[in-house]
Amino acid sequence: MSIAIEAPRKSARTRTLTYWLRRYPLFILGCIGLAAIILLALFAPLIATHDPVAINPAARLRPPSDAWLFGSDPFGRDVFSRVIWGGRVSLTVGIGVAALSVCLGLAIGMIAGFNRVADAVLMRIMDGMMAIPGILLAVALVAIVKPSITTVVVAIAIPEVPRVVRLVRSVVLSIREQPYIEAARLSGVRFPGLLLRHVLPNTIAPLIVQASFVCASAILSEAYLSFLGLGIPPTTPTWGSVISEGRNVVQLAFWVVLYPSLFLGATVLFINLIGDGLRDMLDPRLARTL
Fold first, then answer.
1. From CA 96, how far away is CA 47, in angstroms rounded?
2. Predicted pLDDT at 6
3. DSSP letter (8 states) at residue 236
């Protein structure tokens, strides 16, 4: 009589890690890459090898070396230090725009989805805002108000609000006639409680995904504005401003444009990978097909 020997089971932690790596490899890659960039930005004062705004004419256009990891720009400033300090601005703008646009879009979208009169007025306003290219609207707003990070966040967030509003409104329209919503109304739940208890939880998943894409779009928009010399003061290093300062010497010193462009592209790529992964994880229909 043979006795079956059961193989040792893997721990739940090992199974979970293996499951995530096998099922969502690009999401894990995006999380690791974005975490690395965030850590570089957070510890920029400790990691930076030079003062990012100190001008040194004697060291202008130095190629990458041990002393100048990413080389120097036309003013003799260290490109590596300016790139990691610029990451602070780009990430701050991206997170700020995502938070502001999601908060405004959530409030407007829920009201528009439940009130037909408000829906007719608010959605026509949103349609009008979407008819204007977002970057042009941001340029106009930045040109009117005093340049600052707050101004850039508000200017980029306003064009993003209509997209969030349409998303939230579509979710609200799909659930407002559901039986549990009618039951809550009949039980005496007031309108604010109805939104907070029964509507808001259904919007969290799509809003998280939308916020990731808004963050990536905002980082690119901030780079556009900085490249044009708008929004952020020139004394503050940003990826867009570093690229703009190196565009005239790109044939002599390509590294001035190369490294901030790589960081900008990698950050947007990692955020988009995270957004795609969150979409797959939070959508039950997509999760079943994976």
1. 24
2. 46
3. S
Domain for residue 18, yes or no? Answer: no
Nearest to 260 by CA among 284, 242, 236, 280: 242
Phi, psi of 282 (to 5 degrees): -90, -15
CB 162 within 8 A of CB 208: no
Task: Supply the pLDDT for residue 11.
Answer: 46
Asked whether residue 16 is assigned to any structural domain, the reply reads no
Quote the percentage of the chain above a pLDDT of 90: 32
> Measured between alpha carbons, how far is 266 from 174 in angstroms, rounded to an integer?
36
Owning domain of residue 164:
37-289
Tell me which amino acid residue 137 is: L
State the pLDDT confidence band at 174, using cuts at 50, 70 and 90: confident
Write the CATH number for 260: 1.10.3720.10
Show Cβ contacts of residue 29 under 8 Å, excluding neighbours closer than 6 positions.
270, 273
**Residue 235 DSSP symbol:** T
* Rounded-to-integer distance, Cα 202 and Cα 174, Å: 10
Residue type, 31: C
The residues facing 78 across adjacent strands are 72
Which tens digit of pLDDT belongs to each residue from 89-144?
999 999 999 999 999 999 999 888 888 888 889 999 998 888 888 888 888 888 88
DSSP state of 247: G
What average pLDDT is seen over the chain? 84
Tokens at 217, concatenated: 């779009």
> How many domains is the chain built from?
1
